[in-house]
């Protein structure tokens, strides 16, 4: 058993992909502007004031080494234990540290020493700034494919986030499997990543710069659905998506007709088997989204408004941390058919980008603020 375990660890540690990625994020890149493509662009919708403020409080050196591709702020965070896969210099950890409060905790895991060093340097700075008596952030060195081997306990996290990292892993199924095992029942994996419009070619996969820039390892979005199902997660719920443009001719020539988006999905660890569709009403008690809670691209819950939801969402809401924030009809949980059909699912980020562009031109094509820019801390 011990031998089997060390063999598993060894093939993670010895992977050339890991060594190349470590080299890229440790030695080659020193700051956000060293990136060779604008592979990750932000949704250009304005950020809510409380998130802007939380980002402003993060130390500039941490922000200067931010390489994410989305905003990873799920709702209802007070007191939660959160794990950040590939936490880098720690920007998202320090932002979320403020939102979970002193009773919550954020663990960041990353394999690259240089990134961890920056993150760890500023623990005291941030705890003083937030006036916390003891740190609620810690950083672990390890592989996202081997979370339990890095010392993280099974069934111990309420939420896992990740920002532009899973694409860098050569074994995405293992990442999702490990994430599933360290999540508590009812827990959520909420993550932003880069997705492609089809399975990319071997030439693209083997290109070190494209891999390091988060394009070569991008999953075809449909493969995320398959992996999630194999691992046991609920069907990924698409939250938002924005187009990635690669303004680098050399890289673009290799990428050919493949298109890329940055997308945020939420996956839940809930019991198998769908519940029936039901009606719910949001009570407006979640901090920051008191009037209106955008759960995913299909469902926005306005306070006190009755909404018909599909069976899987009914199961998610009743088994997750959101259960107290909704009333269910009939009371107590998912119910029988009520005559109103729930909306058809939208999980294709390329389709969502088109819809968003139609609704509000420019909103899904990046713009004012590249999320990979240090300006996103201001
Ligand atoms: C694109 S950066 C994103 C960093 C951070 N999430 C952010 O938003 O700034 C990718 C990070 O993931 C880490 N990483 C990539 N693959 C990893 C793996 N298999 N295990 C652990 N860390 C990994 C890299 O070391 C790097 O710090």
Automatic annotation (TrEMBL):
Catalyses which reaction(s): arsenic triglutathione + 2 [thioredoxin]-dithiol + 2 S-adenosyl-L-methionine + H2O = dimethylarsinous acid + 2 [thioredoxin]-disulfide + 3 glutathione + 2 S-adenosyl-L-homocysteine + 2 H(+); arsenic triglutathione + 3 [thioredoxin]-dithiol + 3 S-adenosyl-L-methionine = trimethylarsine + 3 [thioredoxin]-disulfide + 3 glutathione + 3 S-adenosyl-L-homocysteine + 3 H(+); arsenic triglutathione + [thioredoxin]-dithiol + S-adenosyl-L-methionine + 2 H2O = methylarsonous acid + [thioredoxin]-disulfide + 3 glutathione + S-adenosyl-L-homocysteine + H(+)
A GO cellular component annotation in the UniProt record: cytosol
EC primary class: transferase
Domain of life assignment: Eukaryota
An example Gene Ontology biological process: toxin metabolic process
Segments forming domain Methyltransferase: 78-230
Gene Ontology terms, MF aspect: arsenite methyltransferase activity
E.C. number(s) listed in UniProt: 2.1.1.137
Signal peptide coordinates: none
SUPFAM superfamilies, A to Z: S-adenosyl-L-methionine-dependent methyltransferases
A Pfam family per the record: Methyltransf_31
Family, similarity comment: Belongs to the methyltransferase superfamily. Arsenite methyltransferase family.
UniProt name for this protein: Arsenite methyltransferase
Lineage, broadest ranks: Eukaryota, Metazoa, Chordata, Craniata, Vertebrata
Gene: AS3MT
């Amino acid at each position: 058993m011990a031998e089997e375990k060390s063999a598993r660890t060894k093939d993670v540690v010895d992977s050339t992909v890991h060594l190349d990625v470590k080299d890229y994020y440790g030695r080659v890149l020193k700051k956000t502007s060293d990136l060779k493509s604008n592979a990750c662009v932000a949704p250009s919708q304005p950020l809510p004031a409380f998130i802007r403020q939380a980002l402003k409080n993060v130390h500039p050196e941490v922000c200067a080494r931010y390489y994410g591709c989305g905003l990873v702020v799920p709702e209802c965070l007070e007191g939660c234990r959160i794990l950040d896969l590939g936490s880098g210099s720690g920007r998202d950890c320090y932002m979320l540290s403020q939102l979970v409060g002193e009773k919550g905790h954020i663990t960041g895991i990353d394999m690259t020493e240089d990134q961890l060093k920056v993150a760890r340097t500023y623990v005291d700075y941030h705890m003083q700034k937030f006036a916390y008596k003891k740190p609620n952030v810690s950083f672990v060195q390890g592989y996202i494919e081997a979370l339990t081997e890095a010392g993280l306990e099974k069934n111990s996290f309420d939420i896992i986030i990740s920002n532009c990292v899973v694409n860098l892993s050569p074994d995405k199924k293992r990442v999702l499997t490990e994430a599933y095992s360290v999540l508590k029942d009812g827990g959520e994996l909420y993550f932003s990543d880069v997705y492609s419009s089809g399975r990319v070619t071997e030439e693209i996969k083997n290109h070190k710069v494209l891999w390091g820039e988060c394009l070569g390892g991008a999953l075809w979005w449909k493969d995320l659905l398959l992996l999630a199902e194999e691992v046991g997660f609920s069907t990924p719920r698409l939250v938002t998506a924005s187009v990635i443009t690669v303004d680098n001719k050399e890289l673009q020539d290799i990428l050919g007709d493949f298109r890329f988006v940055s997308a945020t999905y939420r996956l839940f660890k809930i019991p198998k088997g769908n519940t029936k569709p039901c009606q719910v009403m949001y009570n407006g008690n979640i901090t920051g989204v008191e009037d209106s809670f955008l759960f995913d691209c299909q469902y926005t819950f306005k306070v006190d408004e009755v909404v018909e939801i599909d069976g899987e969402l009914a199961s998610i809401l009743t088994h997750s941390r959101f259960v107290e924030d909704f009333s269910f009809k009939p009371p107590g949980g998912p119910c029988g058919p009520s005559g109103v059909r729930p909306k058809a699912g939208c999980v294709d980020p390329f389709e969502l980008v088109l819809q968003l562009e139609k609704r509000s031109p420019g909103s899904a094509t990046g713009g004012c603020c590249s999320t990979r820019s240090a300006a996103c801390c201001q």
